[in-house]
Amino acid sequence: MSERQSPAQAKTKSRRRFLGTAGVAGAAAMAAPMTAVAQTTTLRFQSTWPAKDIFHEYANDFAKKVNDMAGNRLKIEVLPAGAVVPAFQLLEGVAKGTLDGGHGVVAYHYGKNSALALWGSGPGFGMDPNMLLAWHYYGGGKALLDEIYKSLNLEVVSFLYGPMPTQPFGWFKKPIAKVEDLKGTKFRTVGLAVDMYTAMGAAVNPLPGGEIVPALDRGLIDGAEFNNATSDRILGFADVVKNCMLQSFHQSTEQFEILFNKGKYDALPAELKAVIDYAVQAASADMSWKAIERNSQDYIELKKAGVKFYKTPDAILRAQLAAWDDIMKKKSAENPMFKKVLDSQRAFAERAGAWQNDYLVDFKMAWNHYFRRRS
Known about the structure:
Blueprint: H1 7-38, E1 41-47, H2 54-70, E2 74-79, H3 90-96, E3 101-104, H4 129-138, H5 141-151, E4 156-161, E5 170-172, E6 186-188, H6 193-199, E7 203-204, H7 212-217, E8 223-224, H8 229-235, H9 237-240, E9 243-246, E10 256-261, H10 262-266, H11 270-304, E11 308-311, H12 314-334, H13 336-359, H14 363-370
Parallel strand pairs: 1-2, 1-3, 6-7, 6-8, 9-11
Antiparallel strand pairs: 3-10, 4-10, 5-8, 5-9
């Protein structure tokens, strides 16, 4: 037999029941995110760079930004070139799922479609590297790159970032004073720069970065280009060659590429995809700042090591542009996609370049005003 409850007793009991239910619900709500945090997705990446190169450091910098922002939900681990696949087979390794992702450059895929070299090779119609990235993200380049990868049945998601400083013309046993000095030279480069140097008389061998200095040391090649003062110093160029020709149009607009296996990327929740997107943007800025800091320091160290730097003569630079004109005409006739990418770049460069060239002051004038007169 149940006792009859007063209104006050019923109200107290109801309140206790509500608090008990709320407590259970609250505990469950707290347990849910803890369970989600414990589930970590780990992605295995490989770069196309030796572990000691600053480019591999850039790859790790990007991974750290993702890992820090994602907490324990996503972790990217980066291996150096050759750890899983050879450097020049990174794209296939990622597409097939042998790797979850990678860090390299689009020009390394040149052999699959010549148009891919246009993300880095050549003068880019006078665009600087950051302007080419502007074309990629806002001028139609990304859609074209995706179209090329799709046509090759490559299941990847690509992010471009990190505008590289202008690369030297090359390291040589003897300085290159005129175009004729290049003829017959056994030389290392990659991408459509292969065609450019070949047109200027060199015998080209497209070696991966880690094989360049040993080849120079053994006399298998007479000259080579890689990228920048820091990488060149770390890779040991100054140990085997003492002449470096600065300024060139062979790869004056290059940037890095971060690749994801499409299946692995598509399986990520929207918030982790956003983390990756913003990490790419942050890493792009950070890389460009770090490059200025490190390259300028290593430029001094290379000089201390006895390296002689020479400005590439204008006659050679003009010969590069003339060779590039012929390459564009030939490749456009052979490959409709090559022409499609070129037309897109040209339209963007004409507009953006006119604005930038008119608006930007001559920074060299100011630098000379403060420093050149003291030297």
